[in-house]
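Pipeline run #58 for the internal structure catalog. This entry was flagged by the ingest filter as a single-chain record with no existing model, so it goes straight to prediction. Upstream metadata was stripped on purpose; only the residue string is passed forward. Reviewer on rotation: M.T. Logging verbosity set to normal.
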Amino acid sequence: MLIATVIVVLIVVGGGATALALALSDHSSGLAGNTTSLTVAGTGSTTSGEGPASSIAQTGGTGSTGTGSTGGPGASGPGASTDSTSADGSSSSTGSSSSTSVAAKQTTTSGATTSTTHAGTTTSTAGSTAASAKVVVIDPGHQAKGDSSLEPVGPGSSTEKAKVSSGTAGVVTRVPESKLALAVGLKLRDSLQAHGIKVLMTRTTQDVNISNIQRAQFANKNHADLFVRVHADGADDQSTHGIHVLYPATIKGWTDDIAVQSKKAAQLAQQDLIAATGAQDRGIDARGDMSGFNWADVPAIIPEIGFMTNPTEDKLLETAAYQDKIVQGLTKAILAFLGVK
């Protein structure tokens, strides 16, 4: 009789412990969307961003139809891990796994946790729990060869522009913008990963063909907390120099859900880039003519890290020391925007 009583007590205690464990393990998290907006008039700016500025109507679309195709031959990026995939098919990130497909413009709010529990202790796969829950998509602007075939500038738009241009080039170094953007983008990836941020790259090689729509859709699909599109600038006047950051103008039905947060990210990036580099402060600009902005459902910015048509700045941009300063400034700004210390 005594033995039977002890067994019953053990079963009750064990059941209680199991129930408690199940209760404690019932936890989920997600990424919150932002639905506020701020109307800002778009401005033109030499050859900033996706290509030369043009007078494109900023009328909102009605819904969306994604192209749904993936870009690039799938070359592996240098130093990349194997738990997530970039838009060009290569692996590059730390943290939880992500999809490789490119989806049509859509707003999503679900996230993914990366922690595991053992003996009452929670451990993260990348940095702190707060940092590893954040996702940054880095898009090194342009590619080795431009693609002049056309795509809609925004969802439902009849206005079209080139899918991706080849960008500018150094007036002295002759280095193409796409190569500089990739070098800085990879350094930025490494810096953010060192802080525990999950980073995904749209490309890790020059030999890809990924349109600006596809790049935005890749950021959308991976629920990016911030979409950072690294570019450099060009101008007819070789004396023009300095740094400025672009962000989406408010266009109803296209960017009105991301404009406010994008502007906040742009302000932080401009402030910290100037502090880190000492470059001329050219401010921030709202743009409504960029398909990579208009198709994005996540906050997006384009840091224009210098003028490659200015001889002095062109040579400076090719130095590792100056690139490190740019990465330092961007890293500080991105961490502040994400609320990660």
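catalog note: The mean pLDDT is 76.
catalog note: Residues 2-25 form the longest helix (24 residues).
status: ready for reviewer M.T.
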